[in-house]
Amino acid sequence: MLILLATMRFIYKKGKMKQQRLADIAHREKYGGFGAVESVERNGTIILRSRQTADLTENEFSEYLERDSRRDRNIMDLRLILSDILDDIDDELPEQEMDDEEQRIMELGVRGEWIEENQQPLDEHSILVAEEEIGSGITVTETPEDDDMDERLEREGGQSGAVQITLSWDDYNDLDLHVFCPSEERIYFNNKTSDCGGVLDVDMNVKPVSNTPVENVVWENLPPIGKYKIGVHFYKHFRKKKSKKTCKFRLRVVVDGDSKEFQGSITYGQAIQMVTTFTILPKTIKD
Q1: Burial (Cβ within 10 Å: 0-12, 13-18, ≥19) of residue 251
Q2: Cβ proximity of 63 and 53 under 8 Å
Q3: CA neighbours within 13 Å on the CB side: how many for 118?
Q4: How deeply is 47 buried, as exposed, middle or buried, from its count of CB atoms within 10 A (0-12, 13-18, 19+)?
Q5: In Å, how far are 135, 155, 247, 261 from 20, measured between CA atoms?
Q6: How far is CA 40 from CA 30, 56, 160, 235, in A?
Q7: What is the structure's pLDDT at 82?
């Protein structure tokens, strides 16, 4: 039964991704876009950005879909365990009334216990995801006028710096930002501060407290040289108004003042989606 469901979802997802890819290609042809690999020089450093799905040939895109399907199959068992555990949290809460902060702390505790018990398979899944070199995010050539990412960051006390990676979405679901660092560390909700200086300073919707959430990872000072991979995971679906099991998101990556934005969507139960990748090189390496 699980294999049948996985096959049906793969066929549906493949069709949706092909439709979105064609729409992105048409948008890029109309408004202009970026090369397959973009190189930007900034204050003595070079920023290399990897290709996105819209840059692929048909054969390359088919190969990407196969890899993406393998990642989804890899996380299927984890999804079922996670869903069973977290859907039962409300049943475990004390009968007396609790305020939002007390409930948030309790859910953090349950999530922490689950992570500790399943750390090894979760790490194995993240290693599989980190093998991907192609970004699934759609490059945004013009920032929408109603984009309020900066306002959300200010509201939550998010910092800016030499490298800043910001995720936002528009419902009560719990999406998580995962940043794979050049040091092979992964910054996410269970490892908010890396040895290489990156910090997850805003982590929202462990409890469904906002329908305008934001998450933020920042290196305030000079970041390490090397490759950065940015992933998004649909961690928890909350059954609240307008919060569906497929969630659209926006991602902004700022490196030394150079900013690029991406949009994407992710469905509850999918693997971590590698949205984009960039590499920071010292200028002398390219000369």
Answers
A1: buried
A2: no
A3: 17
A4: buried
A5: 14, 32, 15, 17
A6: 23, 21, 20, 33
A7: 53
pLDDT means per 10 residues in the chain (287 residues)? 54 60 54 51 76 90 93 76 48 44 57 74 90 90 78 95 95 94 92 94 91 96 90 88 89 91 91 94 58
Identify the H or E element spanning 47. Answer: strand 45-49
CA-wise closest residue to 149 among 257, 249, 25: 249
21, 53 contact by CB (below 8 A) = yes
pTM for the structure as a whole: 0.79
| Residues β-bridged to residue 176 | 233
pLDDT at 235: 87
* Cα torsion 13, 14, 20, 24: sign: positive
Place of tokens 């859910």: 107
Reduce the DSSP state of residue 38 to 3 states and report it. strand
